[in-house]
Amino acid sequence: MPKVLLTGGSGFIAAHVLDILLKRGYEVITTVRSETKATQIRTKYPNAPLSVAIVPDIAAPNAFDDVLAQNGSGLDYVQHTASPFHYKWKDARTEVLDPAINGTNSVFAAIAKHAPAVKRVVVTSSFAAIITEGDLVNPARTFSEADWNPSTYEDGLTGAPATTYRVSKKYAEKAAWDFVKNKPGFDVATICPPMVFGPVAHHLDSLSGINTSNSRFVDLIQGKWKTEIPNSGVFVWVDVRDVAEAHVRAMELPEAGGKRFFTTAGYYDNRSILRVVSAAKVPELVEKDALPTDVDAVKGAPGADFAQEKVHKFDNAFTTKTLGISWTPLEKTAVDTVKSLLQIPA
Ligand code: NDP
C-alpha cells in the first residue's frame, strides 16, 4: 500500500484529497495544526489506514522535520496543500508569506533529509501564481500553465490583501521548483486552480468557519444576494472534487512529473451561480425565502456579471488532456455546494 503525506488535512481541498486517497487504498499521514482538528479527522475515518500528526506552525524553521523524521521512511508521495487562504491577517509577512513560502521550503527540506523513497511531491499552487489582479480584466492576454504572476515579494508586503495572497502562492510555488533544480530523488507537479467551489468534506462547527472560496455560497443561502449580486472577483472556477482528483492523478501519472496544471472548468459569474441555484428550487432555500423572484432583475455590483470582452482569456488544454478530467458543470457544483452548506449550523 503506497504511503502518502498530506499536509493541511483539515482544509477544504485537502479533505477531498484525503477522501480519494483512502478510497484508492493509499495509507495516509496527514498534518494539522491542533489536536482538536486531529481528533475530528480520526473520528471521521475510524478504521482507515490513516494517522494524523500535529505541525503547529508551518512558518516555523524546520516545521516538518519531526513529522518526516518519524514517518519519512517508506513514504512514497507528498501532497502539500497547507497554506493560508484568507484575507484576515494583520501582518502580511508573518501570517501569509512566511507560512506559504517557509512552509514549502521546510516540507521539501524535510523530505530530502528523511524520506528517501519519495518519488513525487504535488503542491497546491493557484491561478494566483499565474495572473495578477490587474490582468483578470485584460482581454488582450491569454493565460496558461506557461505564465507567472510578475508581482514581486515587495508587492506582497505592501500591496492589497489579494496581492499578498497572490505573491504568497507565486513564491511558494517558485520555492518548490527551485528546490528540485538541485535534483533531489523526487520530482514535483503543481496544481493551479482558480476559484474552487464545492461541497464541504472537512469538519465545520458553523458556517462562520467557511473557507474563503465558498464564502459567497454562505451569503447566497443567507439571502444576501436577493437585493444585490456581489462582484465575482475571479471569473474562472473549478469544482473541488475535480481539483482533488487532479492532485491524485498528478501524483500517479508518470508524465505529470515536472508539470504545472491549470485546473479550470471555465468562466462563471455570480449571477450564473444564483441562476442555477434558483432554478434548482432547493426546498430549504424556498422555505427561507432566500432567493430573488427574478434573478435577472437583481442589481449587480460592479464585476458581478461576466463580460467576455473585458476579461482575460485562458488555455488549459494541456491540463485537460494530460489529466483526463471531465470538468464538473456549474449546475451540479453550485447545487451540491448549497445542499452541503445547508447541513452545517449557521
Ligand atoms: P482552507 O483554508 O480550507 O485550507 C487551508 C489549509 O492550510 C488548512 O488545512 C489550514 O489549517 C492550513 N493552514 C493555513 N495557514 C496555516 C498556518 N499558518 N499553519 C498551518 N497550517 C495552515 O483553504 P483551501 O482548502 O481552499 O486551500 C488549500 C490550498 O489550496 C491552499 O494552498 C490555497 O492557497 C490553495 N488554493 C485554494 C483555492 C480556493 O479557491 N479554495 C484556489 C487556489 C488555490 P487550519 O484548518 O488549521 O486552518
Key descriptive features of the protein:
binds NADPH dihydro-nicotinamide-adenine-dinucleotide phosphate; 346 residues; Rossmann fold; globular; three-stranded mixed beta sheet; alpha/beta; seven-stranded parallel beta sheet; 12 helices; 39% helix; single chain
Structure description:
The protein has 346 residues and is of the alpha/beta class. The protein has one domain: NAD(P)-binding Rossmann-like Domain (Rossmann fold). It is built from 12 helices and 14 strands. The chain has helices at 12-23, 35-44, 65-71, 92-114, 153-158, 161-181, 215-221, 240-252, 270-280, 283-288, 317-323, 330-341, and strands at 3-7, 27-32, 50-54, 77-80, 120-124, 142-143, 187-191, 195-197, 228-229, 236-239, 260-261, 266-267, 299-300, 313-314. The radius of gyration is 20 Å and the shape is globular. The structure holds NADPH dihydro-nicotinamide-adenine-dinucleotide phosphate (NDP). NADPH dihydro-nicotinamide-adenine-dinucleotide phosphate binds at residues 8, 10-14, 32-33, 37, 57-59, 81-85, 99, 124, 126, 169, 193, 195-196, 211, 213.
Structural classification: alpha/beta
The ligands bound in this entry are: NADPH dihydro-nicotinamide-adenine-dinucleotide phosphate
Estimated radius of gyration: 20 Å
Number of DSSP strand runs: 14
Examine the secondary-structure arrangement and name the CATH architecture.
3-Layer(aba) Sandwich
Largest sheet: 7 strands, parallel
> How much of the sequence is in beta strands?
5-15%
| Distance, first to last CA | 40 Å
